[in-house]
Amino acid sequence: MERRRMIREIRDDFIVHMRYYKMPAWQVFLRFPSLKILLSYRIRTAAKRNGIFLINPLMAIFERALWGIEISTDAILGSVIILHSVGIVIGTCVLSSGCILNGSNTIGSRKRPGQLQEDARPIIGENVELGVGSRILGHLTVGDNVHIGANAVVITDIPSDSIAVGIPAKVKKEYV
After folding, report:
1. How far apart are CA 176 and CA 162, in angstroms?
2. What range does the domain containing 133 cover?
3. How far apart are CA 96 and CA 126, in angstroms?
4. Residue 33, preceding peptide bond in cis (omega within 30° of 0)
5. Using CB atoms within 10 A as the burial measure, which of 54, 73, 99, 174 is most buried?
6. What are the helix (H) ranges across 22-171?
């Protein structure tokens, strides 16, 4: 069951990347680090769920050294596209399919004492594009089809079909 889930997620990753880059899977895999990062993450999380605990920290060190990215195994990732991996930190969160990370992004929870981890994590919808250096922190929801500007700090909910910019991020435009 776990193996099928991992294979399905990897297949979905390849399909999303082939559509985005408009080239065959083998070319995308060789030219861009995004698929390799997601493959490593999928293997780490599957190993952790199956009780093989040594693989997770070793592969996390490898990811940090090679690509400059840190992804928590508590994160739930859909098929995301990572354009520039250096400086990306993905903590406990739910990141849906079709999201594009442009680099130096931070996504994570702001857990307070006595609060459950699931109650502190951000939930990010489908087809969200994060500008360079943007931060998403705390228990919030970012809707579908949202563009978050460069260096924006999101600490409140963002509705679907909108653009958010600034520190703290404010909705500047909503699509009709």
Report:
1. 9
2. 2-174
3. 5
4. no
5. 99
6. 25-31, 33-49, 55-67
Measured in whole angstroms, the distance separating CA 150 from the mean position of its chain's CA atoms is: 16
**Assigned token pair, 122:** 């951000």
**Entry pTM:** 0.87
User: At 93, which CATH number?
Assistant: 2.160.10.10
Residue 50 CA to residue 119 CA, distance in Å, equals: 25
Residue pLDDT, tens place only, 40-62: 999 999 888 888 888 888 999 99
Residues in CB range of 113: below 8 A, 6 or more apart = none
With CA atoms as reference, report the closest residue to 123 among 144, 151, 153: 144
DSSP label of 104? S
Any idea what DSSP says for residue 13? H
